[in-house]
Amino acid sequence: xxxxxxxxxxxxxxxxxxxxxxxxxxxxxxxxxxxxxxxxxxxxxxxxxxxxxxxxxxxxxxxxxxxxxxxxxxxxxxxxxxxxxxxxxxxxxxxxxxxxxxxxxxxxxxxxxxxxxxxxxxxxxxxxxxxxxxxxxxxxxxxxxxxxxxxxxxxxxxxxxxxxxxxxxxxxxxxxxxxxxxxxxxxxxxxxxxxxxxxxxxxxxxxxxxxxxxxxxxxxxxxxxxxxxxxxxxxxxxxxxxxxxxxxxxxxxxxxxxxxxxxxxxxxxxxxxxxxxxxxxxxxxxxxxxxxxxxxxxxxxxxxxxxxxxxxxxxxxxxxxxxxxxxxxxxxxxxxxxxxxxxxxxxxxxxxxxxxxxxxxxxxxxxxxxxxxxxxxxxxxxxxxxxxxxxxxxxxxxxxxxxxxxxxxxxxxxxxx
Length: 417
Ligand code: EPZ
Prior knowledge:
UDP-n-acetylglucosamine1-carboxyvinyl-transferase, Chain; four-stranded mixed β-sheet
């Protein structure tokens, strides 16, 4: 397994581009199954999670080819109605294929996606919504047998929580259902809007994406189209954390500032100067951050749970105490014990984490156990007094396109071995 060697006491400077959004590319890849013909997806990041979804598409009979950041997905050859366990377990977002495969007709067999490091990750709201669209789904020994013998029928679906994945699965399935579907309390993340934009380009009729109520009028046919994936707001928040923790000034290009509406003020309250104009975000951190105000993770447009770990790393050497409340996932503080090995003074109690800023962190051998926790360890390594060795780099590669190269282009000294 590869490791990252991060030299400490690094200053960053210069400008960099942001990758396309992982959490937008993944649902769009699943939805592309429904769009007949040749889909062209631009600004698609090179990530192991994206590659895993491409493997599912190929298994189902599509041809998928990549040139740099452009993916071409041809869906005319779709034949299979089942996804084998080893492919399902690769990523959580494999469950998003269920809505697409049901809408495509026929029966679907797949295993329950694995839980993951940050929590149990149930799919009960996905299945409830799809059943309300008329799907017959039986769960037996970790496998799902699903079919929609009479097609799917539009319905009024209320979500008890604005689940991103459940909203996406229902939206995809409803796009080809008979009649109209209304999703109440839908997730409002920008990735939902991007998925709706893609589907509407394919001929779907989806209104209200990004709002709490989404209305989908089912259509008979969806035709392939070309689409550019939005920038990854979490990758941007991660780079901001790296700059904040090293007292650096950097510029991040091709940003959509409104996607960082809840992130920017948190850094400003800690003493960072941020200017976001014409798709470029210029970020200047003080020598030492002031303590972050309490950070509560919430569904969009609240503070994103995926930015909690990198931000928590930046809080470790700030002046004063920061409180984090992780409201979305039940086990998303696994990076805390590793940060403590680097000298951080952190206590967790259930969903609450209290970080007492210390003057410095010290390089150590640490182990990443999930994607965003890995990013937190990289950020901490950049400001530590000496070298940090990070194991579990495969987690980082799930969601960050060569983060080490991006950081080196900004002046850091990070090597992958
Ligand atoms: C998506 O996960 C993202 N993944 C996550 O990003 C992100 O953290 C999350 O949304 C919240 O923004 C992708 O888009 C591929 P949810 P998802 O359904 O869809 C519970 C990253 O690091 N829940 O909004 O799984 C669930 O366990 C990843 O890039 C149910 O109980 O998120 C969680 O506690 C991590 N039943 C909460 O709801 C369900 O049927 C929010 O989950 C579905 C979810």
